[in-house]
């Protein structure tokens, strides 16, 4: 089912774009990318235009662009997700700034070949690989516009690890976005004590559900792996003026579990970091249906009180900072980070043991 361009962000608001280099997704192979690199498909930020800028192959484009006059029915690109596996609920192909050279139709195929399956990336990247399943049949794209499709329940309930994007017959696509949910890797082998894992990571299925303000950058950035490269891949709110104002973000843990450590990283935020932060959680079973409200009576304090922040610093709140006085053995399903009064953070990490 096609989704209107104006509704794409709302329809897929509670999913993650898994076709992103920020989540370690990568292109394994493509038929051709003579004019513009296929890797641009996985850039997490919107495409940009640089009119009048030329490189040795021609005009500069922020996307994937192939040669003219393709002798085959389509050009193709094979992509491996950076997560262990994922369920996919929607597909977007963005042709931003491709007008006289956009790909006319897009088709998406997928396969499931998790680590240990015996199927290698090299086999999947080979044009002769026959294990593809069509998720989206060849569908029309338009010049310089976003086109998205919601997939059927049957398709979205299956796990996938690799995708092949077909572009008919040739031309350019700016971005590919695959909206869905990361499926966490299996639990480590049983031992006397479950290992500590990053319960909130987007790689483990963590997703932000709501935020008070996302004026500069989206709150979903705080669950990304690594420490990022600049202020643009964190979460920053507008300046507040009202007395007593706070900003907040609510995240659903990919792995519900106990909490042993919380990290709030203000890397790259120097003149605009929050004065302090608060961390609360919802014990599993108390969240109800849908998105919890910021003032839900069931929020409980995980980290003691307001914690002062500093510029460009990874703040680590361990056992002595937790209200439990050590590992909080309750099973949490959601967490809330509050900024006092506003500002920006790069990452928010919640560590513990999966239930």
UniProtKB/TrEMBL annotation:
This is allantoicase. Keywords: Hydrolase, Purine metabolism. It comes from Penicillium roqueforti (strain FM164). It catalyses: allantoate + H2O = (S)-ureidoglycolate + urea. One of its GO terms (biological process) is purine nucleobase metabolic process. Belongs to the allantoicase family. The gene is alc-1. Utilization of purines as secondary nitrogen sources, when primary sources are limiting. One of its GO terms (molecular function) is allantoicase activity. NCBIfam families: allantoicase. Its EC number is 3.5.3.4. Pathway: Nitrogen metabolism; (S)-allantoin degradation; (S)-ureidoglycolate from allantoate (aminidohydrolase route): step 1/1. Residues 25-182, 205-354 form the Allantoicase domain. It holds the Pfam family Allantoicase.
């Amino acid at each position: 089912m096609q989704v209107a361009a104006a509704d794409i962000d709302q329809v897929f608001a509670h999913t993650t774009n898994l076709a992103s280099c920020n989540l370690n997704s990568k292109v394994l192979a493509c038929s051709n990318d003579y004019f513009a690199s296929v890797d641009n498909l996985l850039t997490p930020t919107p495409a940009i235009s640089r009119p009048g800028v030329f490189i040795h192959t021609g005009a500069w484009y922020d996307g994937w662009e192939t040669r003219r006059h393709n002798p085959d029915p389509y050009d193709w690109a094979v992509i491996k997700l950076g997560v262990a596996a994922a369920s996919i609920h929607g597909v977007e192909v963005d042709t931003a700034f491709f007008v006289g050279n956009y790909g006319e139709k897009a088709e998406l195929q997928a396969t499931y070949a998790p680590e240990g399956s015996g199927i290698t990336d090299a086999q999947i990247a080979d044009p002769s690989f026959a294990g593809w399943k069509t998720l989206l049949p060849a569908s029309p794209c338009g010049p310089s516009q976003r086109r998205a499709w919601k997939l059927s329940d049957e398709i979205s309930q299956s796990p996938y690890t690799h995708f092949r994007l077909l572009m008919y017959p040739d031309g350019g696509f700016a971005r590919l976005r695959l909206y869905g949910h990361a499926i966490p890797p299996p639990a480590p082998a049983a031992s006397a004590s479950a290992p500590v894992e990053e319960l909130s990571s987007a790689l483990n299925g963590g997703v932000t559900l709501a935020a008070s303000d996302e004026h500069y950058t989206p709150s979903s950035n705080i669950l990304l792996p690594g420490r990022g490269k600049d202020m643009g891949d964190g979460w920053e709110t507008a300046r507040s003026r009202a007395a007593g104002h706070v900003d907040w973000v609510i995240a659903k843990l990919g792995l519900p579990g106990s909490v042993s450590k919380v990290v709030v990283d203000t890397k790259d935020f120097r003149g605009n970091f929050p004065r302090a932060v608060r961390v609360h959680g919802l014990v599993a079973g108390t969240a109800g249906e849908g998105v919890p409200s910021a003032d839900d009576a069931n929020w409980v304090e995980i980290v003691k009180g307001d914690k002062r922040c500093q510029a460009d610093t990874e703040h680590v709140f361990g056992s002595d900072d937790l209200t439990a006085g050590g590992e909080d053995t309750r099973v949490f399903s959601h967490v809330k980070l509050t900024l006092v009064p506003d500002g920006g953070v790069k990452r928010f990490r919640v560590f513990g043991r999966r239930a």
